[in-house]
Design goal:
By secondary structure, this protein is of the alpha/beta class. 38% of the residues lie in helices and 20% in strands. The chain has helices spanning 60-72, 107-115, 124-137, 157-160, 166-172, 181-194, 248-257, 261-270, 273-278, 284-292, 296-320, 330-335, 337-344, 356-359, 384-396, and strands at residues 2-8, 13-19, 24-32, 40-45, 51-54, 85-92, 103-104, 143-147, 203-209, 213-219, 222-226, 325-329, 366-367, 376-379. The strands form 2 sheets. An 8-stranded mixed β-sheet has the order 5-4-3-2-1-6-8-7, sandwiched between helices. It binds adenosine monophosphate.
Length: 397
């Protein structure tokens, strides 16, 4: 059975066609610059040359039409017609407090996605367009919504409530949601298996460290806490996001720099994080290079990043009352052995011991702790598309 996975951003659309008989990727691709001049589709099918189409894509509807054409193309395609696609799984950012479990899309699901536009102003409108475009292109084929907030929605009240007047939670569902949900769901589930832990009781901390970074604590794959909040701004220091700051910082910058709240929020989202501290780059490879060349602010940015992750691991080990496994994932987590080593150097008190030779790895599933380490530490590449495809299969079977 083949499942199409769609991930719509505000001006992009990523897709993967996955054969669920062996969980292999049959084809994948990316539509870029949707609604902007210079849009193009890049399509890659197993065993075939890459196929690039440069054509105007005014909306996500056009993008989906082009994806369908590419998938059925005589030379570069992989299916004869769209009836070979059993179902479509969509990554959808936000369902407020209404939905947390993945669900087959119906009119009510679309209404909720729409009602949550202000909680996910960049993603929810694009996600809805992607769903409606698939409904049009493949009438009768089920569409499944997999929520990026789904994992975090399982946090207990004490972890998701902000300590602000309760009426804001009641009136506006203003709470912590958490993001990167499909990644945390996938990696925590795989970590339980890889570390041979009790599937119902294993205590796992997942460090999703990339351009956007978040960390989660879970027991038996169920979220106990996660670092992103109402929006992805909260928590760890990221490429361009500040992570946790005293909210009074916003007022202070507004007053000193004569800016409004929206401008300061834009600074916290797009000009802060390791980019803000270093003034060099948001990219960890650039930062590593600059630090090696003696750039002190790049070094400080990396130190602050590592320290914040270690601080959260400490907090989450307390929240879980112990930890069985720590998994590193995403661009930095999977590739940056120095960051992993530096983070783990704070964790001796937990009995964490890293095997330097094993840690010398990139982008592959590997145990990096010594056999004697009290906590199993691993690199576990995330696969959000596969997580979405598995959820989709579960719902349509
Ligand atoms: P992501 O958002 O998960 O795609 O991660 C992107 C981040 O991963 C960027 O900051 C990259 O610099 C970083 N990254 C990718 N490969 C490496 C590497 N080999 N060493 C250090 N950082 C890396």
């Amino acid at each position: 059975m083949k499942i199409l996975v769609i991930n719509c951003g505000s001006s992009s659309l990523k897709y993967q066609l996955i054969d669920m008989d062996n969980e292999s990727v049959v084809a994948k691709g990316l539509c870029e610059r949707i609604g902007i001049e210079g849009s193009m589709l890049t399509h890659k099918a197993a065993g075939k040359e890459d196929y690039v189409v440069e054509k105007a894509m005014p909306t996500h509807v056009t993008a989906i039409e082009m994806v369908m054409e590419a998938l059925q193309d005589a030379t570069y395609g992989v299916i004869k017609d769209t009836s070979e696609i059993a179902a479509v799984g969509h990554r959808v950012l936000h369902a407020g407090t209404v939905y947390s479990d993945s669900i087959i899309v119906n009119e009510d699901v679309k209404r909720v996605i729409k009602e949550c536009f202000d909680l996910g102003p960049l993603h929810n409108p694009a996600n809805l367009m992607g769903i409606e475009a698939c409904e049009k292109a493949m009438p009768g084929t089920p569409n499944i919504a997999v929520w990026d907030t789904g994992f975090g929605m399982k946090m207990p009240e004490k972890a998701y409530l902000y300590a602000i007047p309760y009426e804001y939670f009641e009136k506006y569902s203003l709470r912590r949601y958490g993001f990167h949900g499909t990644s945390h769901m996938f990696v925590s589930g795989e970590a339980l298996k890889f570390a041979n832990l009790d599937p119902g009781k294993g205590k796992v901390i997942v460090c999703h460290l990339g351009n956007g970074s978040s960390i989660s604590a879970s027991i038996g794959g169920k979220c106990v806490d996660t670092s992103m909040g109402l929006t992805p701004l909260e928590g760890l220091i990221m490429g361009t996001r500040s992570g946790d700051v005293d909210a009074a910082v916003v007022q202070y910058i507004c007053n000193k720099e004569n800016k409004d709240v929206n401008e300061v929020l834009n600074i916290l989202n797009k000009k802060s994080g390791v980019l803000g501290i270093s003034g060099v780059s948001s990219d960890f490879r650039d930062l590593g290079k600059a630090a090696d060349e003696g750039n002190e602010r790049a070094k400080t940015a990396l130190d602050a990043f590592v320290y914040r992750v270690a601080k959260y691991i400490g907090a989450y080990a307390a929240a879980l009352n112990g930890v069985d496994a720590i998994a590193f994932t995403a661009g930095v987590g999977e590739n940056d052995m120095k960051a992993r080593k530096d983070i783990c150097s704070y964790l001796g008190y937990l009995g964490v011991e890293i095997d330097d030779e094993a840690n010398n790895c990139r982008g592959k599933r590997q145990m990096i702790s010594t056999p004697d380490s009290k906590v199993k530490v691993m690199v576990l590449p995330t696969n959000e598309e596969l997580a979405i495809a598995r959820e989709t299969l579960r719902l349509v079977q």
